[in-house]
Amino acid sequence: MATLEIDALEVRIGAAGLKVLEDVTLRVEPGEVLGIVGESGSGKSMLALAIMELLPGVARYAGGTLRWDGEDMIAAGPDAWRKRRGRDLAMIFQEPMTALNPVHRVGRQVEEVLVRRRGMSRDAARREAQALFQRVEIPRAAAMLDAYPHEMSGGMRQRVMIAMALATHARLLIADEPTTALDVTVQSQILGLLRDLRRDTGMSMLFITHDLGVIAEMADRVAVLYAGRVAETAPVREIFDSARHPYTRALLSAIPKTSGPRERLASIPGSVPALDAFPTGCRFAPRCAMRRDACDARAPRLRDATAGHAVACIEPFGYVSDEDGP
Amino acid sequence: MTSASPVRDLGLRLLRNRSFAVGGGLIFAVLLIALTADWLAPFDPLRNAFRMRLQPPGAAHWFGTDHYGRDILSRVMYGTRISLLIGGLVVVVTGALGTVIGAVAGFYSRLDAPIMRLMDATMAFPSIVLAMIVSAVLGASVVNVVVALSIATIPHTARIVRASVLVAREHDYVEAARALGAGDLRILFRHVLINCLGPLIVRLTYVFAIAILAEATLSFVGAGPPPPAPSLGSIIAQGRDFMREAAWITIFPGLTILVCVLGLNLLGDGLRDVLDPRSRS
Q1: Chain B residue closest to A169 (CA)?
Q2: Nearest chain B Cα distance for residue A145, angstroms
Q3: I need a labelling partner for B132 at 20 to 30 A (CA). Which of A137, A296, B10, B258 fits?
Q4: What ipTM does this complex have?
Q5: Does A257 touch chain B (CB under 8 A)?
């Protein structure tokens, strides 16, 4: 059974009911790392918050299901969700500088998770916290337990956040751009650490980033998000070798190359449309090089192009809409 | 590297702040005198001595005597004790209830409007009039004066706590705590309220000063703690009739109130400068 199954999830925002996520269908299998890629405003952070049930006050679930081990979480309600947070589900955030409470020592913050979520005694929690600090490669772990967040660097703080996530024994770790705020060298250390942890603990990961390089390093499978819809989902190799969606292809061609002749950096014209200005048909159509009239008729559904590789575009299918097909 | 505790750092910054040091020194001295009045006071504050009526300040009676021959210095010492007791109790009650009310309003947006409108309605009354009404309805006693002054000072305190909670609950670490399964109460106490302590402490030093002043006002108009127990306000009230012949009866308790309120305000200003990063130079 999949760890997490999202089916046709829809999230709306504000009184006007603007759709920030629409018809999002995803699965995370046990031990799998699913990468979520998208530009700013594509809804990737909103998706992470929706999975945690931490949506901001103005947003609400408006349709679809979100199943954890088969349990329909939206129907089960906030209490069921709260029980899973910090046990089955954990999350690390983009900004390690602000994700730790400045008034408590970092060791205490990790110990608290152990005491509360794993029922450990204070002493046991202290030892376990130290072991976790060593596990996430914080130097002088015993001494650093007594440090305050402002005494640590961004990379060290992100390690503390990861230690807190590990403390929960979560089976799914949601990492929302965990390395975006860090230096490149620290970034690669943190990615290496997350890879090791995943190998050792077998936890699933939902890895959100706008950086395709990070995706290539981390993910088993990739879902490309555009304007609140899944554009394409495929195993990571296929995304890089044979992307089908024009948006994914455009994204890939916008990666700067470090070898070969210097050329102008490719970019995608225009930007992600505003929430209240989504086109009625395919949301990428206004920026798409392959656009035809059929694209404006209705948003294309996610369909399998090959096994395990689904695309929400009619171009790979010869501009035949799924309605017209047999 | 891990030794610099923020608490010790804060202590150092406070001691270096001149207003905090002066205000704190004044309050500490007043507090010490009030607490040791049993030993320091030269006379029984309640004992009449008609032969010594209306004596001006001198060697025997530093602050003079009143129309019953009672020693003003002794009365002021004991009166300060009652005033500080009332002020302290008001701080405790207002601190507790104001925090709870403000925290609930700030944290649960659905309760925000009803609670804060009620607070606004209370604030619409001039607080001293409100306290007089409450004290008149409940009867004059130390407890009722505390209740009356608390009712008058809670709304503003709740408002300050609410505003701080609104800011503090949006911090990333609150969301991070939620992501790790922390419940509302835990988040409120461990992560939100602890970060609202600065403005609350500053506000409470002012509440203390307001309470001392308001207690004196209530006593002056006869709605304070009942005689013969001296409070600073009631000593002044009794001296009113002898202002021309024996001004010292009113002057010395008045100066004591001035010292207390000045000390508390300086203390509060110092705390605010140190605790509020925006006003830090």
Answers
A1: B180
A2: 9
A3: B258
A4: 0.79
A5: no
Nearest Cα of chain A lies from the Cα of B120 at a distance, in angstroms, of: 25
Q: In what order do the strands lie in the sheet with A59-68?
A: A18-28, A4-13, A59-68, A71-72
State chain A's mean pLDDT as an integer: 88
Residues in A touching B191 (Cβ below 8 Å)? 101
Least confident of A289-293, B25-29, B210-214: A289-293
Domains of chain B, by residue range, sit at 7-279
A107: contact with B, CB 8 A cutoff: no
**pLDDT, tens digit (0-9, with 9 covering 90-100), for A267-287:** 887 878 888 888 888 888 888
Per CB-CB distance under 8 Å, the chain A contacts of B2 are: 143-144, 146-148, 151
Q: Which residues contact A205 (CB under 8 A, 6 or more apart)?
A: A32, A33, A34, A172, A173, A174, A175, A194, A198, A218
Distance CA B131, CA B261 (A): 19
User: Which chain A residues are within 8 Å of B109, Cβ to Cβ?
Assistant: 57
- Whether A85 sits inside 8 A of B179 (CB atoms) is yes
Q: Which two tokens stand for residue B220?
A: 């002056």
One-letter identity of residue A196: D
Fold of B7-279: MetI-like fold (1.10.3720)
pLDDT digits (tens, 9 = 90+) for A217-240: 899 999 999 988 999 999 999 999
Contact B173 A101 (CB under 8 A): yes
Is the pTM above the cut of 0.90?
no
Burial of A227 (0-12, 13-18, 19+ CB in 10 A): buried
pLDDT band of residue A325 (cuts 50, 70, 90) is very low
Number of other residues whose CB lies within 10 A of the CB of residue B12: 9
